[in-house]
Amino acid sequence: MSQSDRQKSNVTRFPGGHPPAMSKPGKRGLARLVAATGHSWSGLRAAWRSEEAFRIEVSLALAFVPLAFVVTADIGHQLALLVTCALVILAEILNTAIESAIDRIGPEHDPLSGQAKDLGSAAVLVALILFTAAWGLSIWHWWRGGGG
Fold first, then answer.
1. H or E element, residue 67
2. What is the per-residue pLDDT across 37-51, written as a single tens digit (0 to 9) for each?
3. Which residues participate in catalysis according to the annotation?
4. What's the pTM value of the predicted model, to 2 decimals?
5. Which of 15, 54, 63, 139 gives 20 to 30 Å between its CA and that of 113?
């Protein structure tokens, strides 16, 4: 078999040349949305139970959220500060999901598994740097009498 034939045999053929629309069997409409929401809450509970970093970041967010309304009266600025809190939590959830999937594959060290975990950790670091910069500048400005 030539290389060209092997490439052709590896291409998935779809009727009409397009993949089918993603459709999962089971619940539809509002019932599906309710079930998905339940899965989301299960994920948040799992992150809370299994990840100390997640618990710390959520606790810090609970302290910083009301502070956003103290350091500035500007709603856009408040929203930006709240978004940085949410980004840290979001990055931690995604990092935890990556780590869980990699750990599920097996305990042996694999360079790509290590790279995936490092990239997830880097996402958390970027979110924390953004959080620190936004909050640090905002609190500094407020402390000097420019906010509130």
1. helix 52-71
2. 999 999 999 999 999
3. 92
4. 0.77
5. 54
